[in-house]
Design the sequence.
């Protein structure tokens, strides 16, 4: 597998754009219930603090701050863009699907219908050392949802 | 500060190493002859673990094919032969670092060696409090009011065991800071190592900065106040001539797998008068004299610290690794690697956006360089290099406090050994120069 298959354009773009980044400067919407999670990968120092705001069963906002490799930052950006507007159940299901693909060592293909832009991370599954990079913000989101619910 | 010095050489008759010799050396290392991602492997991660020459692999295989038996017990032929080669290996390692045979203790790795010292010292504190053991133990006991000193550049393995020893004994842990170039603040060291200091633990050569620390100066500071010195020789024993008697350190540790040997074996050196009075760290078979249902008496060193069945084939293979280094000439290896290290740093400093940690080009360093690439995380740098068949280490290299001090969380490290050519370094530099463009930094 080539480097370009791992670092797809969409990943390189999102690693720079960082949608939803700037948690500390972003206020949660009024009336929403929030949950926050901090995740750290001690191996490489990837770090994400992520907050979800849920309003009547819908993800109103997903904001985060983080530092780390392009895979971890891009995956947080994609997640933030996708999650807003989803129902909590929908987001949980997408997180479950993303995890299944990432942990499959390349055996389970990503369905763009389900994962949208996050399907671009399919190639990461072949790099065992990088799976945690792609997962870190999704694990944080799952944890934050549990607290907001 | 010292400029690049030529290591003292005992083998003046032999010419300096060159690429032609390295290419011959590489024939002894089968793992190096392979393609990675379609490119010839460029292995620059020897600081993490080194590769094994055929003589090491064969020594381990030969042991299992011809001599495998438990050592120090059994009267049969194989047990005698196994014991002989196992103890010959100890002598080989002792000779390599200028130690006596009884002063070499086998451990699993350097980490275990440091934990062994740490636990033996807290056991000394317990024994002394109970009046158990040799009277000299009382001098080794630690307690409130005592201080343990480390440095800010330590690998976690030479930091956490001392944090925990301080916790167990009530002693206080202090550290000698570094300056921005990664050198120890020796002006402060002279104040920090004082009357309360009982132990000073530091690395001979930094696994991140490549700095070679002023061992004799630090030993003098410690011994002036009667403190013990523990030397982490993980990045020095494999690469330069180490003489523990000349350095006068009280303990030294290193790992076999970083010096062409197998994993699972490490070495603890300790002055005999210390090893003979320190309580054991682990207890069980093979380290006792008399055992009753109530208590046991222990053998002198080294068996005192070698409970249970030992790492026999690994010790034999490590001796083969030491022989390989000795035959090549450790001083020649040191000089060659210094050249490679200088080439790395000079090249990296010339790449836009690259910041090299530790001494600048032209200053003394071992054959490794850790660096930061502006706007690109080390993990991405490592992945980019791997796609070109270049193996480096990324992360904090088990030195989080050091990285924090330098304002970083992760760096990329290239580390050379005697099987690396200048072409390897140039390939690596060429790849690094393409990193920022690829990641649009």
Sequence:
């Amino acid at each position: 597998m080539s480097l370009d298959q791992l670092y797809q354009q969409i990943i390189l773009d999102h690693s720079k754009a960082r949608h939803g980044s700037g948690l500390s400067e972003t206020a949660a919407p009024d009336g929403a219930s929030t949950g926050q999670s901090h995740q750290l990968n001690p191996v490489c120092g990837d770090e994400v603090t992520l907050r979800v705001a849920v309003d009547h069963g819908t993800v109103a906002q997903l904001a985060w701050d983080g530092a780390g490799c392009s895979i971890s930052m891009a995956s947080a950006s994609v997640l933030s863009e996708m999650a807003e507007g989803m129902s909590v159940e929908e987001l949980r299901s997408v997180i479950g699907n993303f995890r299944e693909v990432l942990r499959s060592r390349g055996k389970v293909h990503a369905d763009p219908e389900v994962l949208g832009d996050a399907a671009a991370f399919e190639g990461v599954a072949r790099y065992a050392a990088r799976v945690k990079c792609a997962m870190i913000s999704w694990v944080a989101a799952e944890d934050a949802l549990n607290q907001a619910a | 500060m010292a400029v690049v010095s030529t290591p003292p050489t005992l083998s003046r008759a032999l010419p300096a190493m060159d690429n032609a010799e390295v290419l011959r050396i590489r024939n002894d290392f089968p793992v190096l002859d392979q393609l990675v991602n379609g490119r010839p492997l460029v292995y620059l991660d020897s600081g993490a673990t080194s590769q094994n020459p055929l003589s090491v692999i064969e020594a381990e295989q030969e042991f299992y094919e011809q001599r495998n038996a438990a050592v120090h017990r059994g009267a049969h032929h194989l047990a005698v032969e196994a014991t002989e080669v196992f103890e010959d290996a100890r002598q080989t390692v002792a000779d390599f670092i200028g130690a006596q045979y009884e002063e070499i203790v086998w451990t699993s790795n350097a980490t275990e060696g440091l934990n062994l010292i740490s636990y033996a010292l807290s056991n000394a504190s317990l024994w002394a409090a109970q009046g158990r053991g040799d009277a000299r133990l009382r001098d080794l006991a630690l307690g409130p009011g005592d201080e343990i000193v480390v440095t800010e550049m330590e690998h976690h393995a030479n930091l956490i065991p001392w944090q925990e020893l301080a916790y167990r004994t009530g002693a206080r842990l202090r550290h000698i800071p570094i300056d921005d170039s990664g050198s120890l603040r020796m002006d402060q060291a002279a104040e920090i190592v004082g009357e309360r200091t009982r132990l000073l633990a530091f690395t001979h050569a930094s696994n991140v900065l490549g700095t070679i620390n002023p061992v004799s100066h630090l030993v003098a500071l410690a011994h002036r106040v009667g403190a013990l010195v523990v030397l982490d020789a993980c990045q020095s024993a494999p690469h330069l001539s180490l003489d523990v008697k000349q350095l006068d350190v009280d303990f030294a540790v290193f790992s076999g797998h970083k010096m062409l040997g197998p994993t699972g074996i490490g070495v603890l050196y300790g002055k005999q008068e210390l090893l003979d009075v320190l309580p054991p760290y682990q207890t069980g078979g093979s380290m006792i004299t008399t055992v009753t249902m109530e208590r046991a008496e222990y053998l002198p060193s080294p068996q005192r610290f070698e409970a249970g069945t030992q790492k026999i084939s690994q010790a034999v293979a490590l001796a083969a690794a030491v022989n390989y280094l000795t035959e090549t000439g450790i001083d020649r290896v040191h000089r060659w690697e210094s050249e490679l290290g200088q080439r790395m740093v000079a090249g990296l400093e010339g790449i836009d956006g690259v910041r090299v940690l530790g001494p600048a080009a032209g200053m003394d360093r071992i054959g490794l360089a850790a660096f930061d690439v502006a706007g690109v995380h080390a993990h991405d740098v490592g992945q980019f290099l791997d796609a070109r068949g270049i193996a480096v280490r990324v992360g904090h290299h088990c030195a989080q406090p050091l990285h924090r001090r330098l304002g970083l969380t992760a760096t990329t490290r290239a580390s050379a050994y005697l099987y690396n050519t200048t072409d390897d370094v140039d390939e690596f530099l060429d790849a690094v120069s393409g990193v920022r463009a690829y990641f649009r930094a």
